[in-house]
């Protein structure tokens, strides 16, 4: 039997449309548009693509987009000063500093400078703490997008066995927290995990966030399991000189065993940007003191 393909691209388009539909009422009440500032340091080509996509989708949703491009040799002080300026700017509801940052910059110090109430990426320690204690804050976009796809597919996640492969601050750890909040029994696997294939084989839900192309094989997956592939890996393509994107799951194999699976591209990736707009919409409502129905999106 072949798995159902979870269409993250279509789900994300629907989510963006829902966000866009709520912008006019916000504008009416607040007298301004929701605003998202994206800061890009350096010229990493992949990051430039993401930043361009974010700008385009932000504008399409009727929001204000502020783009700040800084040279690769930007100092810590200059970046911190920009973040502080954005914190103070009433037109800015959400601030995203694109990661990774150049090596002369202390990433956690920069993230700590972002006003937690404008931290639409959910990377500030205050929001990490809010997530782990069940308070309302901002949840990292990629894991929140994954949970939306899972709930859409499976409904209530209570009691499901979930294995998250990867424990980074931006994907693995918040993913595990969110699944725990959904009453899953969560295992977090990483590079030191013993017997990884056996651990993964227990799971009703597998989330792969490793950064290793096609690492998760079909015989690691329990038949019928739901597989969420977060990995974005650029590898050599069929023709010389061409590249293609693959996930952390061997899709061609896994699709024969899983019950449902996200493709790469077209799975989790598009969800990340749609959730970013959703988080910015929520931030705008909170900062402008306009009531927001948390169940709306
Ligand atoms: N779709 C999207 O929007 C996004 C996609 N991504 C993609 O998701 C993937 C993960 O990203 P990110 O979390 O930032 O990556 P990191 O490199 O920060 O973390 C990778 C994690 O995988 C673990 N790991 C590495 N090798 C193995 C192995 N052989 N077996 C088991 N675990 C292993 C590491 O373990 P340890 O901690 O022990 O080192 C680590 O916890 C990447 O492909 C990235 O491009 C990331 C962000 C957003
Ligand atoms: N502060 C910060 N926040 C982030 O959320 C953040 C970041 N830094 N740094 C980089 C990672 C990566 N990331 C992606 C976003 C969209 C796609 C996406 O749209 N992917 C498309 C394909 C895009 C393509 O073709 O290259 C897809 O999977 O279908 C992928 C990856 C956000 N990240």
TrEMBL record:
Matching CDD domains: NAD_bind_m-THF_DH_Cyclohyd
Record's GO cellular component terms: cytosol
GO molecular function, one term: methylenetetrahydrofolate dehydrogenase (NADP+) activity
Pathway of action: One-carbon metabolism; tetrahydrofolate interconversion
Reactions catalysed according to its record: (6R)-5,10-methenyltetrahydrofolate + H2O = (6R)-10-formyltetrahydrofolate + H(+); (6R)-5,10-methylene-5,6,7,8-tetrahydrofolate + NADP(+) = (6R)-5,10-methenyltetrahydrofolate + NADPH
Keyword Ligase applies: no
Residues reported to bind NADP(+): 166-168, 232
Keyword entries, A-Z: Amino-acid biosynthesis, Histidine biosynthesis, Hydrolase, Methionine biosynthesis, Multifunctional enzyme, NADP, One-carbon metabolism, Oxidoreductase, Purine biosynthesis
Domain Tetrahydrofolate dehydrogenase/cyclohydrolase NAD(P)-binding, first and last residues per copy: 140-286
Gene3D superfamilies: Leucine Dehydrogenase, chain A, domain 1, NAD(P)-binding Rossmann-like Domain
GO BP field: L-histidine biosynthetic process; methionine biosynthetic process; purine nucleotide biosynthetic process; tetrahydrofolate interconversion
UniProt-listed InterPro entries: Aminoacid_DH-like_N_sf (IPR046346), NAD(P)-bd_dom_sf (IPR036291), THF_DH/CycHdrlase (IPR000672), THF_DH/CycHdrlase_cat_dom (IPR020630), THF_DH/CycHdrlase_CS (IPR020867), THF_DH/CycHdrlase_NAD-bd_dom (IPR020631)
Residue ranges annotated for the Tetrahydrofolate dehydrogenase/cyclohydrolase catalytic domain, each copy included: 6-121
Enzyme Commission identifier(s): 1.5.1.5, 3.5.4.9
A Pfam family hit: THF_DHG_CYH
SUPFAM superfamilies per record: Aminoacid dehydrogenase-like, N-terminal domain (SSF53223), NAD(P)-binding Rossmann-fold domains (SSF51735)
PANTHER family found in the cross-reference section: C-1-TETRAHYDROFOLATE SYNTHASE, CYTOPLASMIC (PTHR48099:SF5), C-1-TETRAHYDROFOLATE SYNTHASE, CYTOPLASMIC-RELATED (PTHR48099)
Self-association state and partner proteins as the record states: Homodimer.
Family label: Belongs to the tetrahydrofolate dehydrogenase/cyclohydrolase family.
Role description: Catalyzes the oxidation of 5,10-methylenetetrahydrofolate to 5,10-methenyltetrahydrofolate and then the hydrolysis of 5,10-methenyltetrahydrofolate to 10-formyltetrahydrofolate.
Protein name: Bifunctional protein FolD
